[in-house]
Amino acid sequence: MIYWNEYTWDEIQNLLDKIKAVILPIGSCEQHSLHLPLGMDSFSAIKLSEKIAKALEEKVLVLPPILYGVSPHHMNFPGTITLSSDTLINIVLDIARSLKHHGVNKLIIINGHGGNTAPLTIALRKIREEVGIEAVLINPWELISDVIMDTLESTVWGHACEFETSEALVIIPNMVRVNKIKKPKIKEQKAPYMTIWEKVKVLWPWNTDELTDTGSIGDPTKASREKGEKLFNAMFERTLEFITHFIKE
User: Fold this and answer.
1) CA-CA distance, 24 to 53, in Å (whole number)?
2) Which of 30, 129, 190, 223 is 20 to 30 A removed from 229 (C-alpha atoms)?
3) For residue 142, what are the domain limits?
4) What pTM was computed for the model?
5) pLDDT tens-digit profile of 61-113?
């Protein structure tokens, strides 16, 4: 068993000396265009966390996932459910405090949603200063920027796009509405440096429907299972490499 919540309390007690860290997958419940499920980010974080835990056997366990994220920018599309930044920070802090109480000293957050990054960064600092355990945040896509560049045909990607759709074809193939995959109409911005996928940009509180008609940011019609396998395997290998070193310290 790899999930913390599948054990009894006495079984966890017996495992505490063996556990080097726990993984907390965090995703979202938000629109992912016409062809991907609302829980895509959660499935991404969960599938990666499960594969890591199986590779490391009983050295790490996976905590019950957080299936909601900070998604106000997607709220103009039906189905999205968002947390406030403060709510997500406080949930993660409460989990960290509970882990500390039981003697777990390392927390690995595997995040599937870009909108969670800013609040989770704040949470990391609070965990260090207020709780006193080691916590790290892994945004898996940030570990493979070179692989993304070599794999994707699109210059625009970011949401329900070539990247995510390719990944979905590998990890949740039965949930992809292949017949509904559609290239979006990307909306031009009024001022320079407002294009969110460019490296040189200003930050502004955009909503997704201001950028795209379908909810996709990028072209999902270019997705393939072959690309998905390359991307997901790279995220797995580099995440595993980091965690293997992290738990040895």
Assistant:
1) 11
2) 30
3) 4-242
4) 0.97
5) 999 999 999 999 999 999 999 999 999 999 999 999 999 999 999 999 999 99
